[in-house]
């Protein structure tokens, strides 16, 4: 690809950026929390059809996925769950095929009064767009769509098959991405524009979700000593799991990538529900937890370690010793992933990055996870993850930096053109 072609594509990104931001605002305005992603998928389906892509929009059948590597259990109503894929098929086959994927699900906004502006009424100010999902990762998904638009606007068309995929469940199980693979979508490489601060994810953690279900013995609080407080018993188990977190972080010091980080394994008790009356010793407590694992660590083996830790802590508790807690696996059962055997797509992206940013992209050792794992681990498809800068993901006042968004859109457009090849339209 010559310099003139590159510049025409870059200029087209600039020319289309206001339209890109308008589409991004509309996308962020949809409150697509878990189980409510349908309107976002409708929007993506409409955008793809308007551009002439061949659209596959289907309901996900969990039974088709439950035996696949990386499947995580679904606990909520999944009857409306859908995946959407738009396919571009070239007239001339001259490049390498590509999957472009983004997820449209977002985490809950939390107490609305703690946001400076409403989370689903996106606001642009000070060079940033604020809103739930603006950073993670709706701006990246729309950026990939407009990267394709820029190639067309510059007068070119790709010479390889491209699948543009919008998935759900990235924040809780990953079965949306898994469903596209079960459906049969494959390519020579995958690119996911998660917000990485302009760095390339080299290695990422896996995640295990689990729920502690703790029973107590209720009494009137006036006679608390004769009862057993399930909430306090759950806290006893949490303390034991914090010690397990320390052990796993010691183990992480042997990992060639994660040894550079101080505390890559994070354990989080994220949801707690228990009791039903302030003057009654609580009879029950459920705690939903998340803990990370590193690439190469067995999910099954680490589930056993979690179970053993909880069982040992229960044996050292007056009530739990005879009333052991239960563990439910409540979402992610996801392996870590290290980007390997990706020299060709990395070289193509390196050229695009150099044109936009100068130099070479820095590596990112990521203490969260992305859907890249399914492509690399399940099917040997090299899966790159690179995207814009932003902040407050999963927090209040989430935002994406618009200058970085424009740069990453340019880098994506040049990468697509380099990897897939282009010819004059």
TrEMBL record:
<keyword id="KW-0862">Zinc</keyword>
<feature type="domain" description="Peptidase M20 dimerisation">
    <location>
        <begin position="204"/>
        <end position="316"/>
    </location>
</feature>
<dbReference type="InterPro" id="IPR010182">
    <property type="entry name" value="ArgE/DapE"/>
</dbReference>
<protein>
    <submittedName>
        <fullName>Acetylornithine deacetylase</fullName>
    </submittedName>
</protein>
<keyword id="KW-0170">Cobalt</keyword>
<dbReference type="InterPro" id="IPR050072">
    <property type="entry name" value="Peptidase_M20A"/>
</dbReference>
<dbReference type="InterPro" id="IPR011650">
    <property type="entry name" value="Peptidase_M20_dimer"/>
</dbReference>
<keyword id="KW-0378">Hydrolase</keyword>
<dbReference type="GO" id="GO:0016787">
    <property type="term" value="F:hydrolase activity"/>
</dbReference>
<comment type="similarity">
    <text>Belongs to the peptidase M20A family.</text>
</comment>
<dbReference type="InterPro" id="IPR002933">
    <property type="entry name" value="Peptidase_M20"/>
</dbReference>
<dbReference type="Pfam" id="PF01546">
    <property type="entry name" value="Peptidase_M20"/>
</dbReference>
<dbReference type="GO" id="GO:0046872">
    <property type="term" value="F:metal ion binding"/>
</dbReference>
<dbReference type="InterPro" id="IPR033687">
    <property type="entry name" value="YodQ-like"/>
</dbReference>
<dbReference type="Pfam" id="PF07687">
    <property type="entry name" value="M20_dimer"/>
</dbReference>
<dbReference type="InterPro" id="IPR036264">
    <property type="entry name" value="Bact_exopeptidase_dim_dom"/>
</dbReference>
<keyword id="KW-0479">Metal-binding</keyword>
């Amino acid at each position: 690809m010559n310099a003139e072609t590159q510049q025409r594509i870059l200029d087209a990104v600039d020319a289309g950026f206001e339209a890109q931001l308008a589409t991004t605002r509309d996308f962020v305005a949809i409150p697509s929390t878990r189980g409510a992603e349908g309107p976002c998928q409708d929007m993506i389906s409409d955008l793809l059809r308007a551009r002439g892509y061949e659209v596959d929009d289907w309901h996900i059948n969990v039974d088709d996925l439950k035996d696949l590597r990386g499947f995580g259990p679904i606990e909520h109503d999944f009857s409306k769950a859908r995946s959407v894929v738009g396919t571009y098929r070239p007239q001339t086959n001259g490049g390498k095929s590509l999957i472009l994927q983004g997820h449209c699900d977002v985490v809950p906004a939390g107490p609305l009064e703690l946001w400076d502006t409403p989370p689903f009424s996106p606001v642009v100010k000070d060079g940033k767009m604020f809103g739930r999902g603006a950073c993670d990762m709706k701006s990246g998904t729309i950026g990939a769509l407009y990267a394709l638009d820029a190639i067309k606007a510059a007068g070119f068309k790709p010479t390889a098959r491209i699948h543009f995929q919008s998935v759900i469940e990235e924040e809780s199980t990953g079965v949306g991405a898994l469903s596209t693979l079960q459906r049969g979508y494959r390519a020579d490489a995958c690119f996911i524009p998660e917000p990485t601060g302009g760095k390339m994810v080299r290695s990422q953690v896996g995640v295990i979700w689990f729920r502690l279900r703790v029973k107590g013995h209720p009494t009137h609080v006036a006679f608390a000593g004769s009862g057993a407080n399930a909430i306090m018993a759950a806290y006893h188990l949490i303390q034991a799991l914090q010690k397990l977190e320390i052990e796993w972080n010691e183990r992480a010091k042997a990992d060639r990538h994660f040894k550079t980080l101080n505390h890559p394994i994070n354990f989080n008790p994220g949801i707690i529900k228990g009791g039903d009356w302030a003057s009654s010793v609580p009879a029950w407590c459920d705690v939903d937890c998340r803990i990370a694992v590193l690439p190469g660590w067995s999910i099954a083996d680490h589930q056993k370690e979690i179970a053993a830790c909880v069982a040992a802590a229960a044996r050292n508790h007056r009530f739990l010793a005879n009333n052991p807690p239960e563990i439910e696996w409540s979402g992610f059962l996801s392996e870590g992933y290290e980007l390997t055997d990706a020299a060709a797509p990395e070289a193509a992206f390196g050229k695009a990055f150099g044109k936009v940013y100068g130099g070479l992209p820095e590596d990112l050792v990521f203490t969260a996870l992305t859907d890249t794992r399914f492509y690399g681990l399940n099917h040997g498809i090299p899966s790159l993850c690179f995207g814009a800068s932003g902040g407050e993901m999963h927090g209040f006042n989430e935002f994406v930096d618009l200058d970085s968004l424009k740069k990453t859109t340019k880098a994506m457009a040049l990468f697509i053109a380099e990897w897939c090849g282009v010819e004059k339209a």
